[in-house]
Amino acid sequence: MTRLLLTTALVAFASTAQADYVLHILHTNDFHSRIEPINAFDSTCDAETLAKNECFGGVARLKAAIDARRDAIRAEGGNVIVLDAGDQCQGSLFYTTYKGRDTVEFMNAIGYDAMSLGNHEFDDGPEGAAVLLDGAEFPVMSGNLDVSQSNLLAGKLRHTVTLEVGGEKIGLVSALAMDTPETASPGPSVIFLDDMESLKAGVQALEAEGVDKIIALTHVGYSSDLEFATGVPGLDAIIGGHSHTLLGEMEGAAGPYPTRVTASSGAEVPVATAYAYGKYLGELKLTFDDQGRLTAAEGAPILLDASHPEDDTIVARVQELARPLEELRRKQVAEIAVPLGADRADCRARECVMGNVVADAMLARVADQGVSIAIQNGGGLRASIDAGPVTMGEVYDVLPFQNSLSTFRAKGSTVLAALENGASEIEDGAGRFAQVAGLRYAIDPAAPAGSRISDVQVRTGESWAPLDPAATYGIVTNNYLRGGGDGYAMFATEGTDAYDFGPDLAEILADWLSRQGLGYAPALNGRITVK
∠48-52-54 over CA atoms, to 5°? Predict the structure, then answer.
């Protein structure tokens, strides 16, 4: 009798185990056109660093890593999908030259199953996003965008996606950051809806179709993803992007991978993201019971260092596409004595060396035009530069957006409003944070948004004077901010005598560095004080 009961129990246990469904998700986000391998500063590797095997990522290594993991999982009878959480575009000379055509080619070669649009897919307007949507051999989605009025995008963007994997339906919902009209150029025909409510509607639509395994693929940022986990019923997991957040057990990680959030239902919702620039490949393993309930979530980001091989076919194709870029990229424009740091966490929250350098370069270019203040958004600084020779390719890695120098005049009250805007989303790491020259100010991140800035002073010769709200100042910035981007609407509405057609910022930075000499060693000098 005892043996019979034991046998029955084992059979019952085996049936339960067989009913479990395991899904592996390989995922990337914020690749930012890092087609070639990158160095420790997230910019393109030079030949010397490559020879030392000190590079990371690159699309050839990414493809090889995805192929290896996908093949291994399938060989064991497992289920796997490959997802991207947006911002494949913008960030290198490849995007500047090929405008996303290379992105589509490589994503198709990798074999992505779905992608969520990022804000930088709109850097070249709806036309830029259409390159991706027209060329992708996989669904591209964003659940809170209404593109029905766009003659370029209508009918091409998915709100939800259902994938058939191992006999089960996997539902995907999606959302894009609602401030994208301020950070990119989607145009008036792309209508943004509330992200939370759109995710809820997507989940409800999938559940009505009988889908019981639902994953959010978002490009809104880690802090928002944590809110979605508690506020959107029915989500089983979230794969995110936009904030370039590192998760895991390594030094500098913002939290565990995955980060488990307790929803209002009591269920735990895992949130995962994989930093940026193709340096890591995320792998999240989800286990569901026979009722579609998530019972386990585990995984870790895979560091794609030189120990991971590259795909030979992709290497050859990258080299082919790189040839037209080589002459410009290899041109040495300067030599510097210290690294120029542009760490995202610094340049979006406090004074950073690259912010000082770029703002100084902008101001020097137009100082003889009666301009005394320079303002550059920290989010426009996309890479650091290490000490030693500086090439034009490295400069373009720092300033890849092809922004032009813009000058205008505005009152001190407008300058103060601009600085408050720059500090208004500091807790989210927003790119609008103001790096400055000819100006210094204090910031209190703990104060309410709109009242975080104090002690603003303007430099006059060798002395400093308090900012006069009623006085008019000459200001230099980039054309993106001058036109109201990143929340700087006050520049567009209150500025006068605007000229938006100056040289490319990258050319200005290259010229500035070339004129500083071999001993150029800029440092922080207290122009932004954090209280």
Answer: 100
What is the dihedral sign for C-alpha 223, 224, 227, 229?
negative
Is 437 a residue whose pLDDT tops 90?
yes
Note the pLDDT of residue 293. Answer: 95
Full-model pTM: 0.81
Query: Please, what sign has the CA dihedral across residues 161, 165, 170, 176?
Result: negative
| Count of residues in the chain | 531
Q: What is the pLDDT of residue 13?
A: 40
**pLDDT confidence band for 183 (50 / 70 / 90):** confident
Question: What does the angle CA 420 – CA 423 – CA 425 come to, to the nearest 5 degrees?
Answer: 120
pLDDT at 8 > cutoff 50: no
What integer is the mean pLDDT of 347-352? 98
Residues 293 and 411 placed together within one structural domain of the fold: no
Contact 162, 209 (CB under 8 A): yes
Spatial CA neighbour of 295 closest among 272, 269, 273: 269
Q: Is residue 208 part of a domain?
A: yes
Mean pLDDT value across residues 85-99 = 92
Question: What confidence tier does 18 reach under pLDDT thresholds 50, 70, 90?
Answer: low
pLDDT range class, residue 43, cuts 50, 70, 90: confident
- Radius of gyration, CA atoms only, the chain: 25
Q: Which of 274, 521, 227, 221 is nearest to 385 (CA)?
A: 521
Contact 456, 436 (CB under 8 A): no
DSSP state of 499: E
Which range of residues forms the domain containing residue 272? 19-316
Task: Give 44-88 pLDDT, tens digit per residue.
Answer: 888 889 999 999 999 999 999 999 999 999 999 999 999 999 999
Which is nearest to 489 in space by CA: 418, 399, 411?
Answer: 418
- Judge contact between 297 and 239, C-beta under 8 A: no
- Total domains in the chain come to 2
The answer on 68 and 27 residing in a single domain is yes
CA–CA separation, 373 and 354 (whole Å): 17
Query: What's the token pair of residue 328?
Result: 């410009």
Let me know whether 224 and 352 are in one domain: no
In terms of Cα–Cα distance, which of 363, 354, 347 is closest to 437? Answer: 363
Residue 389 tokens, joined:
């020779």
445 vs 206: CA distance, rounded Å: 41
What's 267's domain CATH number? 3.60.21.10
- Which value, to the nearest 10 degrees, does the dihedral of the CA atoms of residues 96, 98, 101, 103 take? -50
